[in-house]
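TICKET: design request
STATUS: open
ATTACHED STRUCTURE:
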């Protein structure tokens, strides 16, 4: 058994790759997912499938309802923007699919989880390449959070824990991520990335996260194995 690490796992392409990376680096992963009122809750079933396939010491699904705040197409009655290609997506500004402070909330839960299992490492799948421009996916944000985290816990103050936040995908394109996951044996058919899947869990193929995912597989010379509504 390697050192324990908390892995934030949505069930999507990025976080599933990160789980494989953490295991490849010798960590014992404690997976953490969230039921936060997201419209694409089928991703939680994907997270369960991923854990079953890859393995983890434990998989916790935390319940928090961010619908009480709204402010995002993922947590309120706002249409998820659809496009025919990434060329038609809006440039500049933060997209309506941004969930206010989501990564800060998720990392705070991960910080609490880390203390309880004596973990000094948290893995997250944030990336600043081929992404939607969310402010809480930037490297300066991750660095700032890590500094704060080491001031915010008993373990940090007592010197028994020096928390490190790993973001191994930060400088990787979607194609790089797909290639790395395939090298590590990730079964991407188990994952779900779409922000607006249908009742059968099939991806829409037109939201920005679907388009980025399809771009990654195409540039990696591979085919996305998940089901799409247009297929």
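STATUS: resolved
RESOLUTION: sequence designed for all positions
ATTACHED SEQUENCE:
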């Amino acid at each position: 058994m390697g050192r324990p690490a908390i892995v934030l796992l949505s069930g999507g392409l990025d976080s599933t790759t990160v789980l494989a990376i953490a295991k490849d680096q010798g960590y014992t992963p404690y997976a953490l997912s969230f039921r936060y009122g997201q419209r694409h809750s089928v991703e939680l079933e994907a997270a369960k499938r991923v854990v079953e396939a890859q393995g983890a010491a434990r998989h916790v699904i935390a319940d928090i309802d961010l619908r009480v705040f709204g402010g995002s197409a993922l947590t309120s009655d706002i249409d998820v923007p659809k496009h025919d290609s990434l060329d038609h997506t809006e440039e500049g500004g933060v997209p309506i699919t941004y969930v206010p402070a989501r990564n800060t909330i998720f990392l705070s839960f991960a910080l609490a989880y880390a203390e309880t299992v004596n973990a000094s490492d948290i893995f997250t799948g944030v990336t600043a390449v081929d992404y939607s421009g969310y402010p809480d996916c930037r490297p300066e944000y991750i660095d700032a959070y890590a500094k704060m985290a080491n001031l915010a816990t008993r373990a940090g103050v007592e010197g028994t824990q020096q928390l490190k936040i790993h973001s191994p995908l930060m400088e990787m394109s979607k194609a790089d991520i797909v290639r790395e996951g395939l090298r590590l044996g990730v079964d991407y058919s188990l994952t779900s990335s779409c922000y607006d899947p249908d009742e059968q869990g099939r991806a829409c193929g037109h939201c920005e996260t679907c388009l980025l995912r399809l771009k990654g597989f195409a540039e990696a010379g591979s085919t996305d194995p998940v089901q799409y509504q247009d297929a």
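CLOSING REMARK: The mean pLDDT is 90. The beta strands are 4-8, 28-35, 58-63, 121-123, 164-166.
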